Amino acid sequence: MTKLKYTFKSDVLFKLLFVKYPELLRRLIAELLKIPFESITEFDITNSEMPPETIGTKFCRLDVAMIVNGQKVNLEIQVENEGDFPERSLFHWARQYSVALPEGEDYSKLPRTIIIGIVHFKMFKCKEFHSEIRALEVTRHTELSNKFGLHFFELPKLPKTVNAKSGLELWLALFKAKTEEELAKIEEMGVPVMKEAIGAYRHISASAEFQEMERMRSKARHDEAQALKNAEQRGEKRGEKRGEKRSDKKWERVVADKDAAHTAAIADKDAAIADKDAAIADKDALIAELREKLGGK
Question: What ranges make up the beta strands (E) of the chain?
Answer without folding.
Answer: 43-45, 64-68, 71-78, 113-119, 130-136, 143-154
